[in-house]
Amino acid sequence: MKRGAFTMRLKVVLTWKRVAGLAVIGIAGALLVGWSGLVSIAASSGHFAVTRWYLGWTMENAVETQSMLIVKPKDLNLDDPALVRRSAGHYATGCAACHGAPGVPQSPVVKEMTPAPPRLEEKVNEWSDEELFWMVKNGIKYSGMPAWPAQERDDEVWAQVAFLRALPEMTRTEYAELALGGGLADNDLEPGGETTAALDGIFENALADCVRCHGRDGLGRGEGDAEDAFPIIAGQPAPYLYATLRAFALGRRDSGFMEPPASRYPSEVLEELARYFADQPVPLERAGDAAVLGPEAEVPNLAVDPVDDAPVVDAGLASDAMETFLMPLDTPQDEAGVLEGAGDLAYAEIPLTASAGPPSTREDVLELGQRIAVEGFGQRKVPACQSCHSPAGRERNPLYPYLAGQPEWYLSKHLRLWKESRRGGTRFAHVMDEIARNLTEEQIEAVSAWYSSLAKAKP
């Protein structure tokens, strides 16, 4: 050692006991800091710059990594106008209140959140389609960003991604038409003002929620390529509509689009909505399968709703009589008397029997679809769809909807949900489980195409 110099060397040997001791001290220190109450949790204080950077960096890495396993469906077209329109109403009620929208500013209250939600028009292009899907479906902890209400409905999440992709180029007028039912583009919208319905249970507010997507006439909003964006609810039996709304409200049928608005209002308002849309005229060929109970017929009692705590409104169709009507899967269709004569389906102009072998043309697909709808496949325990969904079937049981003229994508999607045991609904929804499981993909596509092709009367 040189004179005047002093050197000290510390030799520390790490042992398991010392490592465990350090861990205990660290945990105790963290608990002590938390117990002291001195940690700032005030949103008004914000984050330190380094903290804000670290949290954002961590979130970006997590989304990028955890979205790597997501595979976008090959047949998905995010530019499809129908897909964009399908999720516009949900954006207005579920997203715009925080993120704003074209012509809709963010609330000053929202801007004071920590972290503050960004305006999505300015951010969506920074993320891939798969990353947007992951965030919409899973949400983000500690940010106020919720997960998708129906985790099994990836098709709805992709529709929301399609809307987000279109958002940056969307004008104020286009947004008002898509998401707010139109007619609001010239109004100054207050932050969150016209983006959410009032929560006071007033019928007009509830109807406004429905109109965003289904239109005031119940025929679905959209023209051209977006004409079939929504199912037709006009003229459906009132008990079916009411039971379906209650199923959405209680989580017995999954839909991220429908669960929030259905759970927003009391049963009495849902009942009134069901009666309103049941009374709307249906512009379909009334001589055939699309016929529904006319306005002169008495609307059946909504007390037949399958939900246990549904209100009983008045005397009407007895629920016990409905419970006895379950068409046996092996009942010969001609003995059941459900075909109702050739005249009912004559306007479709499609032979009753499908061509031999897998359908190779659109005509063959429609042939097969009509055969399934009218004759069924007894050997595969697939009864004719008309057994329940014909006018006579609905008269016997108003919890069965009509299918004619419904969008092809809607019919095929819900048949697949039943096939996968992921489709709930009214007390009779289970009837479709076994039927759908016995249908092949080719048959699902065929019967969906045929019902969708049934002629609509021009206005």
Automatic annotation (TrEMBL):
Residues 82-168, 194-281, 364-455 form the Cytochrome c domain. The keyword Transmembrane applies. Keywords: Electron transport, Heme, Iron, Membrane, Metal-binding, Transmembrane, Transmembrane helix, Transport. Signal peptide: none annotated. Pfam families: Cytochrom_C, Cytochrome_CBB3. The chain crosses the membrane at residues 20-43. GO terms for molecular function: electron transfer activity; heme binding; metal ion binding. This is Cytochrome C. The lineage of its organism: Bacteria, Pseudomonadati, Pseudomonadota, Alphaproteobacteria, Rhodobacterales.
